[in-house]
Amino acid sequence: MILESFSNLNDSIILVVFLLQEQFRTANCTLYFFHAVKILKFSGQSQMSLYQSCPSGVFTVFSCASEEILGVLVPRLTDLTKSDCIWQRICWRLVECVPDRWMEAVVLGFVQRAPGADVLSRLLGNLVVKNKKAQFVVTQKMLLLQYGHTTEVLQNLLGYLSLDSLRRTLLLRVLQELLETWSSSSAVKHSPAEQQLYISKAILICLSHLKEPEIETHRQELLTSMMEGVKCRLDSSLLQQRRLGMVVAESISLKINTEGPVLKFEYEEDDETRELKSLLVQTPSFCNVPSLPDDDRNEKAGAALPLVPESNEKSHTAAPVMPNEESDTEFDSDDDLIPYDMSEDKELKIKAPVYIRDCIEVLTGSRTEDVDKWEATVKALESLVRKNPAATREVSVELAKILLHLEEKSSIEGFVELRQRTQVAVLTTDPIPVAKYLTSQFYSLNYSLRQRMDILDVLVLAAQELSCPKFCGKTKHSGAQKPCIQLLQGSDSSKGWRRVVDERIKNKTRRLDKGHCDMELASRPNEFNSVAGYFFFPLIQHFDRPLTTFDLLGEDHLVLGRLAHTLAILMYLAVNTVAVTAMGKALLEFVWALRFHTDSYVRQGLLSCISSLLLSVPTERILADMTEELLETQSWLGDVMEKDPDGDCRRLALQNLLLMENLKKKLEVVPS
Amino acid sequence: MHPWNSTVGSASLKLMLKLLPRLFQRRILIEDSMKSKVASLFTALMALPPPDPQFVLRGTSAAVHTLYFSCGGSEPDIPLLYSGSESGFIHVWNLRTHRVDTALDGHGRKSVYCVETMGGKDRLLSQGRDQRICLWDLAEGRTSVTDSVFTEHVGFCRCSLLKVAQGRWLMAMAARSLEEIQILELPSKTSVCTLKPEVGAKLGMPMCLKLWQLSCGSQPVLLAGYEDGSVVLWNVSMGKALSQLVCHQEPVMSLDFDSEKAKGISGSSEKVLSIWSLNEQQNLQVYKTHELVNAGISDITIRPDKKILATAGWDHRIRIFGWKKLKPLAVLDYHTATVHCVSFSDHSNPRERLLAAGSKDQRISVWSIYAQT
Questions:
Q1: CA distance to partner chain A, nearest, from residue B305 (Å)
Q2: What is the CATH number of domain A534-672?
Q3: A334: nearest CB among B201, B294, B324
Q4: Cα distance between residue B367 and residue A29, in whole Å
Q5: Global ipTM
Q6: Across the beta sheet with B168-174, what order do the strands follow?
Q7: Is residue A591 over pLDDT 80?
Q8: Pairing of strands B168-174, B181-186
């Protein structure tokens, strides 16, 4: 670099511009650029005039090819401003004089390209305080309106805001606005998951920059908006949303309660939550992370005071004690005592009842103290039911009732799963009366949402078992259990449902192989054929009649989502049954009534319904009986694919449209 | 004369056991007349089946939680067994007739979980779930509560009694605040001291207590098992913890201590019995552990002669061990529900000694086992 030889500031700027020019030769902005340089040469005799006139010229160039220019300019300026405060001021001046219409591009470019927050601070100075447009871009547009920027950009941006006291007020304002968005329930409902993640990240980064006194003054606000946000997020039926709420709330509470209890949720850690949490501790000088290990140490020291560790050490030295005792064993032995036969001393096993009616007695009995027997009964009941179908049929509804209301008395491992398997066994043994009972209970008073969702799960698993010809032994259990475990843990059950649908679509594409597959299977009548209606229609009939305790169309939208997914699966499993066309029609009506539901989980369920329908109902029936409805649905699907905020919904809609496309093709093929 | 022709005494069984394989190895011909003898020898070697109870006491009509023998008197005195039941009655059983002599009702129908005599069978101490410890006067047919202590403790920790001088006892009991133990002098009921664990020790509630002293007149010492599974040795006169040993992962349900051998044993809801010893520096250390077949021990008692010990199991079984090496001796399977308590009698004639066990199945089984040794 020959920059050092230029003592005159003007000259050096001109040189920079020349250097830039060299690099821009290939770019399509050359013409404009010469113009700019001419202006520069012409007016750039004094510093003042340079300040006033040069930037506008330079940024004429930006207007045309800001990408390339910034790519060169930012690293160069970064170098120059590193040690030279005059260059810093020139740089500040440069950006300040950028005309408003180019401001956004310039600021964005700087923020994206600067290697760190301190560099950005050197380059931009207090631009955001002085320039309204820049302020809008930085504090509103990049944070609240856009959400495609990477985490590094966010860190640059917010770090830049935090580095100067003038800008810190902006940081606090930004945080307030972010929290407002985060805690607004309509934003939660209508903005895409990616944007919510982006906002959460921004909040966490802001928090990491906050200092103790600032937190002090804003504690109340933080707390209120945290509560609001958590409330509407925990209300969401999507796992990701709930988890996001939990992580952010935990982080906020960690920040505002430096001492005292900290909010702690139970959720599974994954990469996303770990990344989010790491954002909070990125700047150790600001946050109180180091104090945490300190606390730990104190606790450990406290624990070390009592005699526990001492005695633990002693337990290691227990071996030397033994020989001492050993030495006088000649006198000191129990040899004169002859043991009795102890072969009967085996592990205690409670005898489980052998008859189903005995089980009913145990489970309904008021003798609460006999927990062991109760446990053994719960464990044995499923196999009893499967072994004695005739005996089960006699008491099936009573048994279903007991199981539906059965609550965990003692902590049996996997109780819920056991109960569910037993319920499925009862339902498959005597499908019609039990399905009638369960579906009627789904819409009756005095059940918890959990119980209602249990009913749905049981119906699905039983339908799956009835319809699958190769259901026997182990495969059934592994297959049937997996989704239910997922459901019970409240994890993203829609994935389970969707997987089924996806598999179906895959099956669809491999249609030619299908005949081959069927050859291998032992053929058996589809037991679901005769009972599909009993599973399906009672469920779909009453969804629009709210009860005092249960309002599917109101706040119990989680159950509505599950109901939609359940109906989708039942529809899918009803393939090749007689009732399938009627089911399809009813399902289309159901979907049509709910298509604008605000909860994306419900919408996902509806879209799954459409997929199931398209796959299960025979093509000719679809075309004959529901063409109009289908055309309406198609236009709705198009809308969803384009406009839905939820990515999964868009994807499902696209899949459905593809399925419809396939149908059309078939239609074309058939006549020819 | 052939050595086999001599009668085989049970004492030489062990020797025979060693010899038999060798006999067969060398293919020594056994005469026909000897064959039956060898066969009986084999059955003798294959341990005896466990005995049945000597007798069973029925009629408490509630789960039995505690038992205490009073059989030490000379001939005209009738041997007695006191039992405390869930219905709040204390039954006094006549061990000659196997009938209830008296039923005492002093705990407001709340479960009685500790009964002990205080120097003779006329004075009785009982502890119940009504949070009271009652002192009874039973002399000349009286059945009156002479005094009572309000413990304000809501747990199940049995109190422990120690005679320090003629007519003077020390009693350790769990106190009102959760982690504390209070030592009272009886019959004056004056508080001797309160034993508080260090701040932050997190021992939990005391679960079982054992007050003892090395010899008459020496300082009384308390062993206490806590909810967190540790056993703590307290110096009662200084009110200070001398040693703490974590024996179990679960609450210590019961413990007993042999002051002669300075060795103790504790049981918890786990599958393990823990035996620990106390060294000269007053430190508790683990001696060994013994794995059980089923989890849960509700009571442990060492026989007064320190030869055997009995455990009451949640698995409905009573187990007998040799105390010296903790050799398993017998498993007594009679009860049909959790055994709550085991107690050895204090007969002056060792051959009359009995073992009693009380269970949730409302029965008290009385056994005569290893009375000869």
A1: 13
A2: 1.25.10.10
A3: B324
A4: 108
A5: 0.76
A6: B160-165, B168-174, B181-186, B190-195
A7: yes
A8: antiparallel
